[in-house]
Protein: Putative ABC transporter permease protein
Amino acid sequence: MTATIVETPVDVSTVDARVVRRRLGPGRRIPFAFWIGPALILAIWSAGSATGLIPPAILTAPWDVVIAFEDQWVNHDLLGNILASLERAVLGLALGVVTGAALAVISGLSRIGESLVDGPIQIKRSVPTLALIPLFIAWFGIGEEMKVLTIALITLVPIYVHTHNGLRSIDGKYAELAETIGIGRGAFVRHIVLPGALPGFLLGMRFAVTSSMLGLVVVEQYNAVAGVGHMITLAEQYGQTDVIVVGLVIYGVFGYCADAAVRLTGRKVLAWRRTLED
Structure:
């Protein structure tokens, strides 16, 4: 008696999709996962300070930082310093984002625009913006204009690079489809090209908000009369390491929250686009 083996057809595409998902995707999103890493760092910092593995001369204990924060808030103008720093960062970031995005559109949608814009931007990428601060001081003085323009120039480059790359990465089949169904160039740019470049723009925003914090840290060391950097400079003169750590923590919170806001915006705006992040 011969046994008959019945083969059940297997959907290979479904299996491949499951394998790829298991290998590359993060699976079910963990609630508040974005804060697990910082909480772990805080726990290690606290444990190290409590056990003496991290001496106060190396890094102030978290509870001493909290006390210093309260002292700066009650007895000094910590809120005013925070608002001054935020104003500089927001103004510089806004100017850099608008300028970088506009240049990317000009360069990404026009060969002539690319020949005029892309070369100078690439030259700028090879010259650190922070090295230009002495020149900016000679041009604009040491007031707010120099600080805001420095932050703007730092944030301009990542916005331009990633937005330009997004514009140039649009699949050519969409252009062919637009020609086939008779969509005009203006409608094609508005409804296909710009939305297609949005992921690149948002990626550039993540780099830009981090770069704005880097620029803020540096420019606030130059004759600032208010701001977190001004507070750190005074604390350095008086040897107040706990206040210095307060300022560094504030800078870190600024950047972390800004990056989280950009990521959340990306998830909302790009809900139509399945990515590994989702």
The two ends are 53 Å apart (CA to CA). DSSP finds eleven helices and no strands in the chain. The chain has one domain: 60-269. The longest helix spans residues 185-219.
